[in-house]
Design a protein that fits this description.
Blueprint (H helix, E strand, L loop, with lengths): L18 E7 L5 H15 L10 E5 L7 E2 L5 E2 L13 E5 L11 H12 L4 E4 L2 H7 L7 E3 L5 H7 L4 E3 L4 E4 L2 E4 L4 H13 L2 H10 L24 H12 L7 H7 L4 H12 L3 H19 L4 H7 L5 H12 L3 H11 L1
Parallel strand pairs: 1-2, 1-5, 5-6, 6-10, 7-8
Antiparallel strand pairs: 3-4, 9-10
Length: 337
Amino acid sequence: MRPEQHRLADNSAKPAARLKVGFVLSRCFTLSAFALFVDTLRLASDQQDRSGRVLADWQVIGSTRHLITSSCGVQVAPTSDFVDPSRFDYIVVVGGLLTVENPIDQQTIAFLRQADAKKVPLIGVCTGSFILAAAGLMKRHESCVSWLHYKEFRERFPELAVRSDRLFNLDRQRGSCAGGSSAADMAALLVRKYISRDAERNALEVLQIEKARTPADIQPRRPLYDDYDDARVKAAMITMEQFVDGSMPIEKLAAMVGLSRRQLERIFIEKTGMSPAKAYNRVRMERAKSILAQSKAPLIEIALDVGFENASQFTRTFKRTFGQTPSQHRAAALRAH
């Protein structure tokens, strides 16, 4: 029985079956993401903090029983060999450092493909979506990654859909999340769908999490847009930064946040005091400003990166925005250091 098919008429009633989750840990996996996900299941599984597996069960599965080392050095031992993947309701792949070559072995890739063939939902946590994508398992599905990893995902998998404006995403037979505390949010959603709201509430209370965030919640990020309290404005501006070359049409940007162009224009004027087009230009100029201060890249290269055809056009726009030319800004940044 799939979790999306399972519904409890009464939260107090005992489910027909436990929620069963298999974890695949990559080499140098992120310990916090794994711990938050599995602990949400543990705390939702029974009452009075006895760590029983009454309502949920989980295994760390692997091709060997060798210890798997996390990115912080803590090691975790697999608790199960590969079994029929249909024994699990979900298989969660926990990623980690992107610099690691072959984060999982060929036997594990074969196991994930077998799970896909048997219609077992696969979830990529942290950079686990990179692992699923590399295995050819994210075609026709949208990946949610941290904004820190968005550019690298697009470079590695240009043909795949990806977003970084949300905490996590559930896209049919796939799930993905940015990692960190969003792993608990995703686990809480599974608990609510498969077990009950009471179980979800119990887990979050013990974890000292006030409430679970939803897939529509925006990723916390560096405070470039902290002055704006509208989630649609934040999501739109994050998308602008992802397409910092200016290639995202305003109409499409509006559609991505569920608005018409006219509605987006009105909200931007109300919340930011400028149009979406002007905000987009500001985002591009802020990126150029950052590159100027941190690199020795030629002006033409920076101009092309932020969507200008030539250095002179870029220079005029930069001076109009910041009151100084790119060269003057770079010289001032060098003096400051």
